[in-house]
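Bit of a strange request maybe. I'm writing a small parser for structure token strings and I need a real example to test against, not something I typed by hand. Could someone generate the tokens for this chain?
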Amino acid sequence: MNDELDLLVSHFSVTCAIYKRQASLNYHKAWNKMIGESNNNESTSPEKLLIDNPSDFQFHAAYLTYSNTYDKTANPETKKQLNKNIRALQQNQIDYSTFYRNISQYRTEDGSQHNYGRTLIKTQKKREWRRKTQKHERIERHKR
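Reply from user aminoacidic:
Good idea to test on real output. This should exercise your parser:
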């Protein structure tokens, strides 16, 4: 895409050079500056970590919480903090209660009920989770 932009800018520069050489140079500099700034803004946004481990039930539940929170937020600083917390949990630098305490300020789940400062936690039995996972894998395997 940069080649197309450079071609367009050079074509525009040649056309303008006939009439006003200075205008084309200023336009070219401004265009490059704008392109450079947009590339810098895109690169500063942290990427979502793909470190899920479905065989570890607790970590998988924590990762799903991280993933949902990450998807709902737009703030790059919040995303950095979420990445930092899930990575620390993966490397056993913090425990699960600390992880949930750290990310609780970023979570805004729809349908969550607050009773006297406590959040209602929706749970799922491990057996039920395994059945759903196995069913999903079976369906995916037979789709191929």
